[in-house]
Amino acid sequence: MASFDISQARARFPALKQDQVYLGNAGATYKTSKASIAAYANAYEGAAKFINASLSEVCSLRSGANQICLGVSTTQLLHNLPTALQSQPGDELVLSKLNHEADTAPWARIAERLGLKVKWWSATDPQNPVCDLDELQELLSEKTRLVACPHVSNVTGTITRVKEIATLVHRYPRALLCVDGVALAPHREVDVKDIGVDFYVFSWYKVYGPHIAQLYASSRIHDQISSLGHFFKGAETLDSKLNLASASYEATQSTPAVVEYLGANPTTTWDKIVSHEGGLQRIRLDFLNSEGRITVYGERSASTELRVPVVSFTVPGTRSQRVVVEVESRSSFGFRSGPMYSYRLVDEIIGLKDVEDGVVRISMLHYNTEEEIRGLVGVLKEVINSLPGESQ
Ligand SMILES: Cc1ncc(COP(=O)(O)O)c(C=O)c1O
């Protein structure tokens, strides 16, 4: 039998080309590397910086980023949170019907398990559903423990006034605000201190990075979060409380790169991004609003104060899926149709008969060009004109 070729094996592990001798594989093949520990801490700091979370100097664990937790997805992080958040009998949870299901299901489930009351925060206008402050005010009480809403609906693209909502929610002694920032974070600078939220979550894989997600919790309420970690582990940071093992060492390395991509003055870069995306969304909305056969959902205005470049619509009488297929058959534009995991919004508020078929959603990013969007408008025109108006 040929002997094991150790030099060939070692050649496949580039990290071995240094002085440190790795004898910690039972922990992890590379984790003992000082370089990888430092890179992981640096990634957390990049991630915290991205949303203006505080870096604590006294925190000795992993990094100073003690207000954030990284995990595989927003859905997973939002499942961990309700299990860890302390509650008491009689607590009420106010859940927006505009939520992606990721910010509804875990709260509804814990409410059912613990006998807490769910109050649904609905919306009245089926074409332009919003998280309305007056409607929220009606639902809040001394018993409110949590309000969960999106910063932007991933269907309508409309921006929620979360700063004002945070102020309103915090008038109640135990009430906390959990904001799903997944649909906003690719398009706007996020400053968790400025908006004053208690929890903020978003997915890096929509913010130009790999498939990881991030949860922030204000230090002010860390003592209200129990640790999901083993009893002998420390619970000084949000990560040590909510992250059941570690985030992906490999994937987290992207966060400093995204921060760097935004340049030395991220606010200036964001301003340019907002202005560029605003121009693109104007071209697209001008067309959609002018086309009588299309129903647009969300703000019809292209104002960047009101919306991000995520636009959904239906062509009444035609299946949304058909619109997508027709566009794809004539061009290389790629987008999707469906309820977009915002089933309650599409079903109960927008009121589509065929919820599974859902809406056509076109979402752009700053890398899209004016030429692309003008081309898209041309193809959409052609498709709409060709549709016979079949029944749904
Ligand atoms: C608004 C919104 N929230 C939550 C999620 C879920 O994110 P994840 O896939 O990271 O669980 C999505 C995913 O599309 C989303 O659009």
UniProtKB/TrEMBL annotation:
Keywords of this entry: Aminotransferase, Transferase
Pfam family, one: Aminotran_5
Domain of life: Eukaryota
InterPro entries in UniProt: Aminotrans_V_dom, PyrdxlP-dep_Trfase, PyrdxlP-dep_Trfase_major, PyrdxlP-dep_Trfase_small
UniProt lineage: Eukaryota, Fungi, Dikarya, Ascomycota, Pezizomycotina
Positions of the Aminotransferase class V domain: 24-374
The protein, known as: Aminotransferase, putative
Organism: Aspergillus clavatus (strain ATCC 1007 / CBS 513.65 / DSM 816 / NCTC 3887 / NRRL 1 / QM 1276 / 107)
MF (Gene Ontology): transaminase activity
